[in-house]
Amino acid sequence: MAFAKFSKIAVCCLTLVALTACGNTIRGMGRDTANAVDATQDAGRSVERAAQ
What is the DSSP letter of 52? Predict the structure, then answer.
């Protein structure tokens, strides 16, 4: 009986760790995407200034 209870607690803890890791990955991808957008906009401005 104690093993079954321990197993349930272990599964819950592992699930929480996995969800936390996913949240950090998604947050990092959002930052990377924002940085890529900023870099693209900066490059567009540079091209526009060079064309003038």
Answer: -
